[in-house]
């Protein structure tokens, strides 16, 4: 589960200033000409749409930008080091560990492609002895060392971002649906918990010229909100989706009962989650047992004012209508706000989710 990493990031130190005197033929006492040191490289995080895990930050935990070069003779400033850009997946939360106050401060939520965050500023170069020359200091031996580059201990955490979350009991056909709505090829299996980490896919709605990122999530079971089954980690994924597609397999268990079981978990997890818009989808209508039940199921859901769509993720029946419905509803949901974050402000973790989540799988594309 490479969704979490602790790393130390260090900017480069500035190069030292140098002490040097001109030595020229026929000029016995050349003046001071020691140049300044170059600036150390700064370190940035950059959000990259093609990455999905923090694996690179697990293999290595200290990242350092290059130091500036020291000054040179002839008043030449040493070369500045290039900056270090560390790529992280979109949806990475960045926390700075404050050891002194024993606190973790959320400083950024990298949600946009190529979004850049300055983590540690490179140290300025030191002064060469040329700078210390004055009428009373003709032969200056002073110089200053380069400043140290900043150093930060970070916690990186991915919080999946998708427009639509596919939820439901295990085996309902969520992965099959993802595959039929997008070009994803999520693993499908006739047993519960085939999916243990979210799968992503992009659904193109060419008639509207838009596309939505869909996340197929592991199955939820009763008690998930309090950690049962694969636990509440999966509800956490759902937090950053805008719309839920709730899939039900009426062949497996009574449709209304299944529906209620999942709703209960959403409500137990958070008010925000339970208030998300939802499209309820009854799957597997290619099975005659299910087809025969359609009028009955419709009636049952009508009792508590829930509209349902009927599909077969396997044969594609009803999928176009579902696609249309998803894009219609999506048009009515505003884009979510970012975690309010900036480097100048600090936030205590008390109000923030602090558990890890799981996120793996290659997105075909992620446009938000
Ligand atoms: N007959 C029929 N079977 C389906 C349909 N959709 C999915 N299945 C089957 O149902 C089983 C479970 O499908 P998955 O897509 O893996 O279900 P899931 O909800 O992703 O399951 P988990 O990842 O385990 O939670 C597989 O055997 C699928 O082939 C459908 O529309 N009709
Ligand atoms: Mg699955």
TrEMBL record:
Coiled coil segments of this chain: 252-279
Name its co-factor(s): Mg(2+)
**Uppermost EC category:** hydrolase
InterPro entries noted in UniProt: G_OBG (IPR031167), GTP-bd (IPR006073), GTP-bd_Obg/CgtA (IPR014100), GTP1-OBG_CS (IPR006074), GTP1_OBG_dom (IPR006169), GTP1_OBG_dom_sf (IPR036726), OBG_GTPase (IPR045086), P-loop_NTPase (IPR027417)
Q: Name one GO biological process term.
A: ribosome biogenesis
> Cellular component per GO?
cytoplasm
Q: What is its EC number?
A: 3.6.5.-
Tell me which residues bind GTP: 168-175, 193-197, 216-219, 283-286, 312-314
MF terms (GO), sorted A to Z: GTP binding; GTPase activity; magnesium ion binding
Q: Which residues are in the Obg domain? A: 1-161
Q: Which residues form the OBG-type G domain?
A: 162-331
Binding sites annotated in the UniProt record for Mg(2+):
175, 195
Q: Which CDD domains match?
A: Obg (cd01898)
UniProt keywords, alphabetically = Coiled coil, Cytoplasm, GTP-binding, Hydrolase, Magnesium, Metal-binding, Nucleotide-binding
Subunit structure comment from the entry = Monomer.
Q: What is this protein called?
A: GTPase Obg
Gene that encodes it: obg
């Amino acid at each position: 589960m490479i969704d979490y990493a602790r790393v130390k990031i260090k900017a480069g130190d500035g190069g030292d200033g140098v002490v040097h005197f001109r030595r020229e033929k026929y000029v016995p006492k050349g003046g001071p000409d020691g140049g300044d040191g170059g600036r150390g490289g700064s370190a940035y995080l950059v959000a990259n749409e093609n990455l999905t895990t923090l694996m690179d930050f697990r293999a290595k935990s200290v990242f350092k930008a290059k130091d500036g070069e020291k000054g040179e003779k002839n008043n030449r400033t040493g070369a500045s080091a290039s900056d270090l850009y560390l790529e992280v997946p979109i949806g990475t939360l960045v926390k700075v560990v404050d050891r002194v106050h024993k606190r973790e401060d959320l400083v950024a939520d990298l949600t946009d492609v190529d979004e850049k965050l300055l983590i540690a500023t490179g140290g300025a170069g030191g002064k060469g002895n040329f700078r210390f020359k004055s009428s009373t200091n003709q032969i200056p031996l002073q110089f200053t060392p380069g400043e140290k580059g900043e150093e930060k201990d970070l916690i990186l955490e991915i919080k999946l971002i998708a427009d639509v979350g596919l939820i439901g009991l295990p085996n309902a056909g969520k992965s099959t649906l993802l595959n039929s709505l997008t070009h994803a090829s999520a693993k499908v299996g006739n047993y519960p918990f085939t999916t243990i980490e979210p799968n992503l896919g992009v659904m193109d709605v060419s008639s509207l010229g838009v596309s939505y990122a869909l996340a197929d999530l592991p199955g939820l079971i009763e008690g998930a909100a309090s950690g049962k089954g694969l636990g509440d980690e999966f509800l956490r994924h759902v937090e950053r989706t805008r719309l839920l597609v709730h899939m039900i397999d009426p062949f497996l268990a009574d449709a209304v009962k299944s529906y209620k079981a999942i709703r209960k978990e959403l409500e137990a997890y958070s008010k925000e989650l339970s208030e998300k818009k939802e499209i309820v989808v009854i799957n597997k209508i290619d099975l005659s047992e299910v087809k025969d039940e359609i009028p009955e199921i419709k009636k049952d859901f009508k009792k508590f004012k829930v509209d349902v769509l009927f599909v077969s993720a396997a044969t594609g029946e009803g999928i176009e209508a579902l696609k249309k419905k998803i894009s219609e509803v999506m048009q009515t949901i505003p884009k979510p706000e970012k975690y309010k974050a900036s480097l100048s402000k600090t936030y205590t973790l008390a109000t923030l989710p602090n558990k890890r989540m799981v996120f793996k799988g290659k997105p075909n594309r992620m446009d938000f």
